[in-house]
Amino acid sequence: MVVRAGSLASAMSEKTIVHLLRHGEVHNPEGILYGRLPGYHLSEDGVLMAQAAAKWFADRDVAAIFSSPLERALETAAPISELFGLPVTVDERLIEAGNRFEGLTFGVGQGSLRRPAHWPFLINPFRPSWGEPYKQIAARMKAAVIAARDAARGREAVCVSHQLPIWTLRRYAEKRRLWHHPKHRQCQLASVTSLTFEGVRLVGVSYAEPAADLVRRPTVPGA
Description:
By secondary structure, this protein is α/β, with parallel strands linked by helices. It contains five helices and six strands. This is Phosphoglycerate mutase.
């Protein structure tokens, strides 16, 4: 195989954008930390958020769509898939972070933090001790983004995922420490965190909130 110098230079400077889209609002009146549990679908507002996100992508050059296997992510990806006539490829690496408090309400008062049996899981916020390590989240998300970048080479890809995995990858990409306070995450419902590559080199990170007008209330951290 012969690669001409001009072709190599073009490939090295080729711009590809991978958009990390957080899913829309979930119907969760009990305030459960649902994590990876099945059966949690978009609320009525969540469906509108997914549609708003699709509208935001309408003028983009989307060539590939990937999604976490969870229902809320697939339902968020659906309008984009319909708009572009592209299939949604499920990538397990985009799934929500594992969490020991999955299925419980979280917080003090009547939440799971009130129970002494749960306190040992809180001893190390830097790993964290209550769930999937930040380094592990960053590694799997990085691998998913690289796969999406390669699939959409020279164009754009959408990866639908979840708040904590997206925010962890962003902090990794920006060379910041991975541990953080959940209240400081810039990753609203149906928000888009975009990674711009020139060839294989990451050259920019940007953020947008296509459904900002539809966000009415705080959500469970990490959802």
